[in-house]
Design a protein that fits this description.
Helix content: 55-70%
Distance between the termini: 58 Å
Structural class: mainly alpha
Number of helices: 8
Oligomer: single chain
Order of helices and strands: HHHHHHHH
Shape: globular
Strand content: under 5%
Largest sheet: none
Length: 198
């Protein structure tokens, strides 16, 4: 009995990036969201196109990277760069653009408030697309808990607490990215110092 055979890596195949991502893949939602938002309204400064030198990356490239990283728990600019090179979902999302870790980290440092707004808007987008629940029901002065428990019954205090939790988690993600980048840069500087002076 033979083993299951793979496809030879030397065989030529005609396939687009579009064919590799299913219609239900979450990266399609990230793409749709970023392409529809007004960047200036959430605090991003439009980038001026240069007439000379190397062209800059579109802001939307970084937004897609950070949303993908947030949803997949990627907490380092170096890891985000690595995923851009090897991850087929990010290759589809970014149309094979691969910014280096330094550009990814600089974008975050230059736009901390706008990135927080981005994450909040993304949650609203998922709610509007009915991918997550997020309903508020108001009844004219009547407390109506029915058969649901205290954990699944929401009032304004619980909603405010949940929004604060989302804000804290967003800040935790951005802080973790910053700490990981700082730590890796100091480790690399130390190894370069050792190579030069030892």
């Amino acid at each position: 009995m033979q083993h299951i055979q793979g496809i030879s890596r030397y065989q030529l195949r005609l396939q687009s990036l579009e064919d590799t991502i299913s219609q239900e893949n979450p990266v399609r939602f990230i793409d749709a969201f970023v392409n529809l938002i007004d960047l200036e309204k959430i605090g991003f400064t439009p980038r001026v196109l240069k007439t000379e030198g190397r062209p800059s990356f579109d802001t939307k490239v970084f937004l897609k990277i950070y949303l993908y990283g947030y949803l997949n728990g990627i907490r380092s600019s170096r890891r985000l760069e690595k995923e851009c090179l090897r991850n087929i979902e990010l290759q589809w999302l970014l149309e094979a653009i691969c910014p280096n870790y330094h550009s990814i980290a600089d974008f975050r440092r230059d736009n901390p408030k706008a990135l927080k707004q981005l994450f909040k808007l993304f949650v609203s987008f998922l709610k509007d697309a009915e991918l997550i629940a997020g309903e508020i029901i108001a009844i004219d002065g009547t407390k109506s808990r029915a058969h649901n428990g205290k954990k699944s019954n929401f009032n304004q205090k619980k909603i405010d607490k949940h929004l604060a939790y989302i804000e804290a988690k967003t800040q935790e993600y951005l802080t973790a990215l910053d700490q990981n980048d700082t730590q890796k840069n100091s480790i690399n500087s130390g190894s370069i110092y050792q190579q030069i002076y030892l």
